[in-house]
Amino acid sequence: MFSRILKNDLKRKKTMNIILMIFVILSVMFASGSINIMISVYGGIDYFLEKAEMSDCVMLTKAPYDNNPAEDYFENATSVTSYSKETIIFYSAKNLFKDSVKYVEFENPGVITSVDDAKINYFDRNNEVITEIEKGHIYLGGILASKEEVQPGDVIELRIENVTLELTVDGFVKDALLGSPFIGNPRMLMNDEDVRTLLASEKIRNLDCGAIFYAYTDDIKLYEKEISDVPNSMFSSDSSILMLTYMIDMLTAALMLIVSICLILIAFAMLSFTIKFTISEDFREIGVMKAIGLKNSSVRGLYMIKYICISSVGAVIGYLLSRPFEDLLLGSITDKIVIGNDNSVATGIITAIAVVLIIVAFCFSCTKAIKKLSPVDAVRNGETGERHHKKSVLRLYKSRLGSNLFLGLNDVVSKPRQYMSMIITFTITLLLIMLLANTANTLASDKLLFLLGTTRSDVYYNSTDKAMEFMGSENEDRFYEIEDEIKQTMADNGMPCDIHEELMYSIPIEFGDFKSNYMMQQCKDTHTTDYVYSSGTAPLYENEIALSTMILDDLGAEIGDTVILTINDERKEFIITASLVTFNQLGKCGRLHESVDIQPNQAASVHPFQINFTDNPDDAEIEARIEKMQEIFGTDKIYDAKDFVDSSTRSAGPIATAKNLVLMITLMIAILITVLMERSFLSKEIGEIALQKAIGFRSSAISTQHTLRFIVVIILSSIIAITLNIPFTKLVSDRIFAIMGATSGIEYKIIPLEVFVLYPVILAAVVGISAFLTSLFARTINADDMGNIE
Amino acid sequence: MSKVIEVKDLCKTYVVNKKQNNVLKNVNFSIDEGEMLAVMGPSGSGKSTLLYTVSGMDKMTAGEVDFNGKNLSKLSENEMADVRLNEMGFIFQQMYMMKNLSILDNIILPAVKSKKNTESRKETEKRGRSIMHKLGIEDTAENDINEVSGGQLQRACICRSMINNPKVIFADEPTGALNRTSSDEVMNELVDLNKEGTTVMLVTHDVKVAAKCTRVIYIVDGGIQGEYDFQTRYTPEELRLRERNLNNWLMEMGW
Lengths: 790, 255
Description:
- The complex is a heterodimer of chains A (790) and B (255).
- Chain A is built from 25 helices and 21 strands.
- Chain A has 790 residues and is α+β, with helices and mostly antiparallel strands.
- Chain A is elongated and about 100 Å long.
- Chain B starts with a strand and ends with a helix.
């Protein structure tokens, strides 16, 4: 008998059963997909570094091919258990051509490596280790690995010094060391013969060569101390810091994880709704079964068998769909990183089984409602005669609303539990989009200027060429001459201005037994009091210093302690007066007082020239002047404050991409939920729709009424989401910024029109259209279908 | 008396499992304004189908229904909805009402919906309450539909059917779900309504109910087998006599 009832139920309640199955599929898909994402992301970068066989520490040096002073340090350092050296050739954007024109812009020097000399594993886009490259062919990495600039199969030209090579692009390389866009030194992987051709040039051997040292150590602190004096180090790091360079990618993956978790919650909310809805629809059948003597457990068993069948079929489909879903969510990350876990199939299957068990348990708990239904329900149309709380909340005769809007609104407020899952779902959806929009907008605004250790200026002019002119030059005044030249050019072009530049110096710092090299920032033309500190007071005297919280953690020092800096070969004591948070040098940077005697030509890194106009132009004029400056100086690397932040963090883009992806996914989910919910409502409300038709309601009025219910739900969800917007953004994004080094002081850029109007309106439009189209099914319900009323 | 409904060669056919089922076969009759017509017949004879087809709730397969000068078969779905809203009232055996509305809101809903109604919401409410008062259910105005008795609910349904002052009220076994006392009360309301000029067409199994009408048509296998005209309007004193005469006639029809 059970199988017959089950068979009939599956046939008769096709729509509701299909809806139920879709939600099981969604739950399994989201759960299985996101567990794998979780595993991938949790160990993501570790996994990548392990697969790449990355060493414990790494140092990038510049030196003539035949004489690299760093090698002696690695040979003699007691902390180094073993090391390997990868020869590299430096190149810059001006060396690359496509169709005889310079085709790409980047600031830092790139590196060329022979595939035969590779000391770590480099991967192609299919995650295969690149072991061979044909002569005349090339793999591009880092910021060069962009399909917008170049496609596999394209031919590029490399012109360094007096050597020219024509190279066919074979593909893009996933480079564990330099692959992050945060590093900014794009690698090119080439055939050994091609590299030899370049090295045959004496000029290249002497001026453009260097090496990357991959070192293994058991004592990082001692290692840092022993190699802190390497004179030709351009970049030195241990692999834990290297992981931070992938923070934007981790960030995107983490956001995807948050999205997945939210989607699982949504799927479960929907599942709960569907089960409770089905049971409430079946009150008559359940009542009759009880009336003829079936026990609660038997009736419940009947439903459980059905749910187990549906869950099992849904789990298989959901698992199969989880694979492309994972790829979709991780798509933006997997271009750069070998991400994943070797057991993803097993994990997926185990997760799917676990989800089925959870769903069955969940269904079991949802079927508790069966206990409440009695045989009386079957004969009294679901009403036991008890006086329940009032169903009707609003009064039509007191209302000024039109009948359609009134009925839609009254329905939502009269049956809030029925709409609760939808309200929760749409609220989560909106909060997610708002969170990503706020984060992306903040990253692309000038709100984060303080995290870059700069003051606000009208224009930021980034010139690697000009920086290279004074950095390392013998002429101590060259920096000031360049500033004067720029100032004069600006004045000649009707743009009178003041100019200054933040310079970074690589300085060894000692505290107790600890010694390591850190970047110290200084600007001669500003005051230390012009900057933001997280605690303490700005350095006011020459012997005072502010250090980032991450350096203080390294040193084990705190405000009030004294550290020793070696400047101009002289060891000097500095009192720590403040701590700061910064994006610079992955959070490890400090600030020297402007009067500390250190010359600009000793700078290891520079910020852009900061220009403040002295004739007070308005924003539109500044915008126009930026364009004019781009023409005069022949570069597009001239920004206003917000573009400067964006170009420095390089994170607004990926976050905005993630936001768009999430927007797409959530809109699809919203459409699906709306269609399924409206379909459920229609099947439950056939009787009421027929009654409305009988008393003279047009089909269009019924569709409008049903659509307005969803719009009311969206409005309620929007109000909740807008109220929670700031706390939710702070809750999640503060952690995101903390990963990037900004542990406090973030002020979010919220664009009200975009966040509070645009996204709710988009969601309302999508949901409204979906609800309206689905509600057109009401046309097939006739006035004489009232027999279905309950 | 002018004809408010004229039915010509009305046919209704259902196709179930490729099998044609002719529920109504060339039915012809008319209803005069102010008449109270009862449709009787054995189960499955097509009484309810006739009521739903004549009232435009169900589509006819062939024939014509002229309602107050409008050929219903020619009306679009929206025009038909407007006719039902403004010129027809409906009462069903089950007291169908919108669950999330109070009794009063259910009653005034068609008036609020009607574009012909130019009253303010306050005036509509007042009129709704006055109809409820007339039918003796004014105390239930704020109640939910599950908070009143079956009789009260059916009277509320009558109030709703009256709210737009319809030309004709169609009632499908309006007392079928009620006890005798409630049934009498409801029928008395319908009779009063009819006396005030509203045309009523109702389907019933109950001789006591039909005896209160002015005319009865007897339908068998989708066709009208006979017609009984009481000639006079019902008065309580004549009820027994009318019932007896109608019973005799029905016996002749094979009831």
